[in-house]
Each structure stands twice: as structure tokens, then as C-alpha cells.
Amino acid sequence: MVIETRGLRMRYGTTDVLNGVDLRVHQGEVVALLGPNGAGKTTTIEILEGFRRRSAGQVRVLGTDPDHGDEAWRARLGVVLQSWRDHRRWRVRELLSHLGSYYAPYGTPGRPRPFDPDELIARVGLTGQATTMLTKLSGGQRRRLDVAIGLVGRPDLLFLDEPTVGFDPQARQEFHDLVHRLSAEEDTAIVLTTHDLDEAEKLSDRILILMGGQIVADSTAAQLARQVAGKTEVRFTHAGRSHVRTVEDATDYVRELFARHGAAIEDLEVRRARLEDVYLTMVREFESGRPSAVQSAWTEAAL
Amino acid sequence: MNPRAAAVRAGLTRGRIEFRHNLGQAYGYVFFPTIALIVMYVLRDNTVPGTDFSLGDRAIPGILAMNLVFTGVMGLAVMLITEREDGTLLRAKATPNGVLGYLTGKVTSQAAMSIATMFIVLVPAALLFDGLRLDAVSPWLTLAWVLTLGLAATLPLGAIIGSLFTHPRNLRFATLLLMGLVAISGVFRPLDALPEWLRWVGQAFPLYWLGLGMRSAMLPDALASAEIDGSWQRLETICALGAWAVIGFAAAPAILRRMARRDSGTRARGARRAAHRERTGHRTG
User: I need a surface site. Which of A35, A74, A120, B189 has the fewest CB within 10 A?
Assistant: First the structure.
């Protein structure tokens, strides 16, 4: 077990950001932490990285409590935070080889550390930029360098916080290939956050949906799709407000809708739910602060 | 290799690389002493009270000392504040023994910068003012230990100031304090004109002793008579600068660690958002 948390809570002042998060990540597994902005993804990941002190709960990362992780523990982690502006006047190869040198004493015969800088630069497709100053890199190039820095110590566990924000479609595709190769060749466990379901589906072995400070779903993309299969999305306008509902039995729901409101219902649209529709409905309901029937249904399914 | 030794070695490399990056900004550090040099050149016909030695010549070592403190302390403070904001420090935290390497690098590059700017000022000063005693070996030996002790005494203060303030703007306050310190440290002229208690305040801080040490290195021994004690007070200089160095190196890492912890939270998050806005041109959650 690479990561295990039980009852993880985080409170800022009087606001609870995490309300008892339970999660497990196994060796070599790629897990996507999916959720809307403000769901607590970054907070969770920063607690796991040892950059933030939790309010309550049990956390083990690589067998250690991150609040008390020592430098040898740190050497086994790779951390890619959200976009950065650090080391602006350094050059790509210069920085990678410098940061790599801190890991050299932690290498083992089975896992030599650090990565060879040139090999790593080639892997993230920056060979042409090896001597470029960091300020001169494009957004996508800078992000790939951030990933390379996260990998330079050949980590057992890699955290990627919104790794593809600001990527164009091609850069995104290349990045996905890189992640697949990493988990396959290096047996690196990867935890990544994203608010893009499509990306979570493509990249991960398992998707955890974090909403309102709790894991509301924990399964493979295929299982999630099966859970929502058979659900139907109903959109309509009533009294000038548009509504979206995800329901089990659309016929029943629509019949009752008309029985109650009659001709006041307009713009009715009924269609079979796709995974993405259900997720987006959850996000909308979460963001508008309404209690979510879908969310509780999903939580039950996940339990 | 021992991981901490590897980090210190990486830190020295880091210091060399950053010194190379920063050398282009040296002009920012020599502006102020250049002005002081010009003023002293204009005043070169005034003499040190009780001697026929030029007041201008007598002030040069003090100006160099002041510049060392400004470059070292304020330069380091500004850099720390900037690099907390842009994530460099958090990057160091994410690297094994990275904070040790970071500090080693910062102290190395800033010490090198202080010494480089000192020479940029010293060379024209030696040409303009002919009272400086630089043509023997012993002044340079004295200069070497005074510089080493002086930087060791003052650079940790830069790290502490950089940890306590959150924005370069707020450093104006620290700059003002430093200016006040310059006024009571005998940088430009002997302290005779000051009330006795203020002289004691001046002597409590390392700038006074660094200035005295520099004067003892560069000026003829006869000038010692113009000092408070009538001598160069070598032993006292070593004790005072040594004490500041010990206190500074003991306190700075603890204060820096405290700051690094606090930074890992909301401030770093703010920095990331700012970075993200900068990159994408719009605001996100």
C-alpha cells in the first residue's frame, strides 16, 4: 500500500474543506482525484505531500506519516505542483541536473537515482530546449519541465496537481502517453488531480471523485459508467428557470412533472445519461450549493 | 556520499550558478556607494579632527562596509521574499535536503555578490583616494578575515529579515533602520559628535565593527587614534562579529523553517493562482 488515509479532515477557521476522506493507492497504480474547483483536491494532495498539516485523521504515505516524513522519505516522492514561476533564469538541463544531484545518495542498485538528465529531457520532449532559459519556455514546455523535475529522483510515488492545465490537445496527448509509460516501465504510483473527467478516464486505473470534502465515488471509469447506465437526464424550464435532473425512471418523472405543473413546463428534453453528463450535473449541483440526489445515490453505490 | 554533504555541495554549485545569473544586477548594488564616493571626493580636503589625514580617505573603508551590509543583508532579504513567492523555496522543500542546499547556495551567491560589488567600488576608490594602504600583503590578510567574519555576522540577518517580511515593499522599514544604523556606526566620520549612549548603541551592531575592521586593514595605523578607543580593537572586533555570527547562524535556520511551514499553506496557493493567471490571462478557482 503506497497511500492510506482514514478519516482525513481539514478545517480552515470554521470551514471544513475535507470531511473524512478515506483513500488507498497501491504500488504502480494511477489514481485520478477528480472534482470541481474548491472540492479539496489540492488540499488533499498537499497533505499527502507533507506540505500541509491535517486537522484530524490517519495518513500513511509510503509507510510514513507525512507530517513526520524525513529526507529519505522525501527522496522517494515526486511532486508536481500547479503552475510555477521558480528558477526563472536557470536553463532546463542546468536545473534538472542540479535538482537531481540531491537524490544521488538515495539511489539503490534496483533503483538508481537520479534519472539521467538528458534521458529525462528526451522523455518529456524538451531535447530542443535543453539550454533554454526557463522564462523562454511556452506554458506547455514549462509544464513538461515541471513533470521532469517531479521525476528526476525516480520516485516511487508521483503527485501531479492539475498537470495539463494550459495544454493544447497535442501536448495533452503526449502527456498522457508519458504517464502511461511511467506507470508501466517504472512501476511508479501516480496520484493526479484534474477537473476533467475525460482526462481522468484516459489516464487512470481508478477514479476518485471528491466533492464537498468527501470521496463520493471510487471505482474504475468502466464501473462508474455502469453505475450511471440506465439513468436518464431530464432538462426543462419552469417559471423561467432551467432545471436538470438525473433520474432512474424518466417516464415516471416526466408524468409527475406534468401532473404537477402542466403547461408551465417548457423546453423539455429527455436523454440517456452519459458518465460525463452525470458528473457535470453533480458539479453544477455542488457549486450551486443544493443537496444532490445524484451525489447521495452515487455515494451509496460507492459504498 | 552522505546526503547532507551532497546537499551542501549542490548548494555551492547553486551559489556559483546564481552568482553568474545575478552578476548583471551588480549595478543596482553599487549605485549608492558610488554616490557616497563622489561626495567624499568633493569633501577630500576636509581632515579627520586632530590629524592632517583626509576625511574622504578615512570614510572609504566605512562606505565599503556599509555596502557589504546593504548588499548582503538587503540583497538576501529581497531574494528570499521573492523566492518564497515564486515557489523556489517550496521547490527546495520538495527536494531531499533541498532547504539546506538552498540556504547554502543563497549565502554563497550573496557573499560572492557582496565581495564583487566591494571590488567594483574599491578599484576606483583606490585610484581616486591616495591615502589607502593597499600595496602590502598584510592589509589584504586583515581584509580577508574581516570580510569573512563580517559576512558571517550579517548574512544570517538577511535571511531572518527575509523570513519576517512578506513583501519587498515592506522592506523599506528595514532599509530605514539600516540607514539609521549607518548614521550611528561611524561610517562617514568618527563618532565624537554623538552622545555617549548612542555610541554604545552603534557599537552593539555588527556594522560598526565591520567598518572598524575595514579601516584597520586599509588605513595607516596612525589613524587608530581617531577611533573611540584610540586603537583598532582587533580582539573586540573578532568577539563582536563572532558573537553576531553565532547568534545569526543559530537563529536563522529555525526562523526560516517556521516561515517555510507557514508558506506551504495559503500563501503558496496564492502564488500558484497568480502564476496561473499570468499564464492563462484569466482568473480561475
Answer: B189
Domain that holds residue A141: 3-223
Domain's final residue, options A223, A243, A270: A223
- Which of the four pLDDT bands, split at 50, 70 and 90, describes residue B265? very low
Do A263 and A218 lie in one domain? The reply is no
Q: What is the pLDDT of residues B111-133, one digit of tens each?
A: 999 999 999 889 988 888 888 88
Q: Do A59 and A88 fall within a single domain?
A: yes
* Chain B residue nearest residue A102, CA to CA: B7
From A38, A87, A105, residue closest to B3, measured CB to CB: A105
pLDDT of residue B273: 52
> Of A223, A257, A282, which one is at a domain's C-terminal end?
A223
Sequence-separated (6 or more) residues with CB below 8 Å from residue B231: B224
A33 and A61 in a single domain? The answer is yes
Q: Where are the domains of chain B?
A: 3-272
How many domains in chain A?
2
Half-sphere exposure of B115 (CA within 13 A, CB side): 16
Q: Does residue B280 carry a pLDDT above 60?
A: no
| H helix intervals, B205-265 | 206-218, 234-263
CATH number, domain at A145?
Answer: 3.40.50.300
- Looking at the complex, does the CB of residue B79 fall below 8 Å from at least one CB of chain A? no
Across the interface, whether the CB atoms of A81 and B87 are under 8 A apart is answered: yes
Q: How far apart are CA A150 and CA A164, in angstroms?
A: 14
A178-197 average pLDDT score = 87
Cβ neighbours for B166, distance < 8 A, ≥ 6 positions apart: B81, B267
Give me the phi and psi of A2, to 5 degrees please.
-90, -40
Whether residue A218 is found in the same domain as residue A236: no
Which of A179-183, B47-51, B263-267 has the highest mean predicted lDDT (pLDDT)?
Answer: A179-183
Report the complex ipTM.
0.80
